[in-house]
Amino acid sequence: MGIDLPAGGRNKKTKRTAPKSDNVYLKLIVKLYRFLVRRTGSPFNAVVLKRLFMSRTNRPPLSLSRLIRYMKGKEDKIGVVVGTVTDDVRVYEVPALKVAALRFTETARARILKAGGECFTFDQLALKVPTGSNTILLRGPKNAREAVKHFGRAPVIGWVSGNSFSHEIVEAIQTQIGATSAQTLE
């Protein structure tokens, strides 16, 4: 006897083929880049499209300081971030940068423009460089989230890889797991 599968068989492909977001502007950008992938055959467009499908956790923000560091010596190129570009108050001087991103924080945009740089949206980028030539694809640090610090073995064990939570959070977790005493995770 076999497994009673629905018509069409079981799903073997697990990657996203569309964004989960209901944002109409994001859907329009996806529509545009689907067209560009089909008509240009550019690997750059394929990567951008794949990143547009990603969840917000997988589209981490990129700070202005990192952007400046990555673009050093490449001022003639356009930095492309499929995510948010955020401001960094620790940076005093901002060079003239050309950056395309899904979002810019107000202060980051203001500082880039004040320095004589340019901020593009993805539809503007598609008009300027349809194949993605003379661009640099950048990403923010994915594991810089606060939550990632708590991943790993439980803090009970001597050699720990994950940070412990505060006492309140530990108690909340215990009630969720159904632990009987408060000393199991401490």
Largest sheet: 5 strands, parallel
Q: DSSP helix count?
A: 6
Shape estimate? flat
Kindly provide the radius of gyration, computed on alpha-carbon positions and rounded to a whole number of angstroms.
22 Å
**What is the CATH topology of one domain?**
Ribosomal Protein L15, Chain: K, domain 2
CATH architecture of one domain: Ribosomal Protein L15, Chain: K, domain 2
Report the top-level CATH class of one domain: Alpha Beta
> How much helix, percentage-wise, in residues?
25-40%
- The residue ranges in which pLDDT falls below 50 over 5 or more consecutive positions are none
Q: For the terminal residues, how far apart are their CA atoms?
A: 49 Å
Structural commentary:
This protein has helices at 24-40, 43-52, 64-70, 106-114, 122-128, 167-177, and strands spanning 62-63, 78-86, 98-104, 118-120, 135-138. By secondary structure, the chain is an alpha/beta fold. Among the domains are: 56-140, Ribosomal Protein L15, Chain: K, domain 2; 147-177, no CATH class. Strands 1, 2, 3, 4 and 5 form a five-stranded parallel β-sheet that branches. Helix 1 (24-40) runs antiparallel to helix 2 (43-52). The model has no long low-confidence stretch (mean pLDDT 90).
Question: What's the short story on this structure?
Answer:
The chain has 186 residues and is of the alpha/beta class.
